[in-house]
């Protein structure tokens, strides 16, 4: 089946409905954030930025994510479309803003795919203990590209296969995290932890104890990245058993589970390693790039390879889940004529956006290989720049919620809070994060590269969004784009192109889906 630019309002996109329940949606939302990898890459830098206030920084960064999740939930109830930010932005603010929101989702996905492949490959080869392998750029890059290709095949063959795989991979990640927390606290209680360790202190959760605004801002920006990814649940809304309810619940549930995970693991690491500037201390800059790698031998001894596997699995699993929202976003854009018709093609047997998935994977591999050839430092800076794309399309979604429901906001207390106040606060916080990030990234000492006399991270982050404007303008002049930019194929009153197949909903006693 081809669901493309010829689809009429009320027809489906061809996606396979009823593939996911609440559990499966939540698993994919959690896996998309790559919790073990995110902690390994971020926790050390958060501690360097704010010291003992790292746990409360993790908690405070949850606030804009929760507020944004409320906007996603409300919009999904009214417009359960897999285009999410693109569709909602277009319905609220028109085609130009909506198109750029969709571009932000695609840019973030492609950049992350490249970096996840790099990390997953590198950690997998570290299991050999042979630096000639895990430090070999050609071997690592080729393996990373292979990971993307394999996950592309899995994604094309259907959500149910991907869900089963993610159940296993996420279980491995959480097993490693639970063991990390239990062993760390056991050593602290038994008095066998390194010098400088201490039981958790209430002062670690004092939101008024931050010593500098710049450190606080840096920590919050870092933490925004580790929460990013839960919105994958919403991109799969048309393929769940209850499109208007399940994705929103899964998104909120995912963010809460991540909050508990991140704060718990951070407290455990601080208690065990302490905040010293030497040895295993978390204020030791040499440990910042990967706290788990620094602590694995001391904590796990001969079983240290478990943490290495967990980081590799985390990155590899997120490679697959990152493809899902990116491909479905471009599918939706094609259906509403914001992209060429071929992006809207759906596999006749598996009910997945085959062309969009393969196209995004090829672009990600090309980007990954190209950045590796240019410079490993440039590749590292791309992941630092992703915060701009995330804040960009999240903030559009937050404000789209307010504008779309503007006539309903003051009709009830619930509507005022969930459709007005929470999205507004989340949007303001994200805009502030975007602006502050851009200012910080402009400095030449931010990141590892300098391009055109300014920070390379700024050039990559702002440049990738600016490139979207160029591509959008070029597409505007194609005849096939006219219905979209004239507001004909998608506007506030356009019926949602839901899946063709009606799936009976089986509810449990409490009203939830079985």
Taken from the alpha-carbon principal axes, the silhouette is globular
Q: Provide the β-strand percentage band.
A: under 5%
**Radius of gyration over all CA atoms, rounded:** 22 Å
Q: Structural class given helices, strands, pairing?
A: mainly alpha
Strand order of the largest sheet: 1-2
Portion of residues within helices = 55-70%
Q: What number is the mean pLDDT?
A: 84
Unreliable residue runs? 1-10, 498-514
Main sheet?
2 strands, antiparallel
SSE sequence, one letter per element: HHHHHHHHHHHHHHHHEEHH
Count of separate DSSP helical elements: 18
**Distance from first to last alpha carbon:** 29 Å
Number of strands: 2
Write the layout of secondary structure elements.
Layout lengths: L21 H11 L2 H16 L3 H25 L6 H9 L1 H32 L4 H4 L2 H20 L2 H32 L22 H15 L4 H4 L10 H28 L17 H10 L4 H31 L18 H21 L1 H29 L8 H30 L7 E2 L2 E2 H21 L5 H4 L29
Antiparallel strand pairs: 1-2
Helix pairs in contact: 1-8, 1-11, 1-13, 2-9, 2-13, 3-9, 3-11, 3-15, 3-16, 4-5, 4-15, 5-7, 5-13, 5-14, 5-15, 5-17, 7-13, 7-14, 8-11, 8-13, 12-13, 13-14, 14-15, 15-16, 15-17, 16-17
């Amino acid at each position: 089946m081809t669901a493309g630019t010829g689809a009429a309002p009320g027809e489906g996109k061809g996606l396979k409905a009823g593939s996911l329940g609440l559990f499966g949606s939540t698993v994919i939302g959690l896996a998309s954030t790559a919790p073990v990898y995110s902690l390994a890459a971020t926790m050390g830098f958060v501690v360097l930025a704010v010291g003992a206030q790292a746990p409360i920084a993790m908690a405070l960064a949850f606030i804009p994510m929760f507020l944004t999740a409320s906007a996603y939930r409300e919009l999904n109830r009214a417009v359960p479309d897999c285009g999410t930010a693109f569709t909602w932005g277009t319905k609220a603010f028109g085609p130009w803003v909506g198109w750029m929101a969709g571009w932000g989702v695609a840019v973030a996905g492609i950049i992350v795919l490249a970096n996840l492949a790099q990390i997953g490959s590198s950690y997998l080869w570290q299991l050999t203990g042979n630096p000639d392998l895990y430090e070999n750029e050609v071997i690592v890059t080729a393996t990373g590209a292979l990971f993307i290709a394999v996950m592309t095949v899995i994604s094309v063959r259907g959500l149910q296969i991907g869900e089963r795989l993610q159940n296993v991979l996420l279980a491995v990640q959480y097993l490693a995290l639970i063991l990390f927390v239990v062993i760390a606290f056991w050593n602290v209680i038994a008095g066998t932890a390194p010098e400088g360790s201490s039981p958790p202190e209430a002062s670690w959760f004092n939101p008024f104890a931050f010593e500098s605004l710049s450190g606080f801002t840096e920590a919050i920006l870092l933490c925004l990245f580790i929460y990013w990814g839960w919105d994958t649940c919403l991109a799969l809304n048309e393929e769940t058993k209850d499109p208007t309810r399940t994705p929103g619940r899964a998104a909120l549930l995912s963010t809460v589970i991540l909050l508990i995970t991140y704060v718990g693991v951070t407290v455990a690491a601080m208690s065990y390693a302490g905040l010293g500037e030497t040895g295993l201390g978390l204020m030791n800059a040499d440990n910042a790039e990967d706290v788990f790698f620094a602590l694995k031998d001391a904590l796990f001894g001969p079983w240290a390879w478990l943490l290495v596997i967990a980081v590799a699995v985390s990155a590899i699993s997120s490679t697959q889940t990152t493809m899902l929202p990116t491909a479905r976003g471009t599918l939706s854009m094609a259906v509403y004529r914001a992209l060429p018709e071929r992006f809207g093609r759906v596999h006749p047997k598996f009910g997945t956006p085959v062309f969009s998935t393969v196209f995004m994977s090829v672009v990600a591999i090309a980007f990954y290989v190209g950045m590796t050839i240019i410079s490993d430092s440039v590749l590292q800076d791309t992941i630092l720049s992703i915060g701009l794309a995330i804040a960009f399309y999240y903030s559009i979604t937050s404000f789209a919620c307010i504008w779309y429901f503007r006539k309903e906001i003051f009709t009830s207390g619930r509507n005022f809070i969930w459709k007005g106040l929470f999205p507004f606060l989340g949007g303001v916080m994200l805009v502030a994060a975007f602006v502050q990030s851009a200012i910080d990234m402009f400095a030449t000492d931010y990141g590892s590269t300098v391009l055109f006399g300014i920070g390379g991270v700024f050039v990559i982050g702002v440049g990738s969004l600016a490139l979207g404007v160029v591509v959008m303008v070029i597409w505007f002049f194609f005849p096939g784009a006219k219905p979209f930019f004239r507001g004909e194929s998608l506007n506030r009153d356009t019926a949602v192109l839901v899946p063709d197949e009606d799936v009976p909903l089986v509810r449990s006693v409490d009203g939830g889906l079985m």
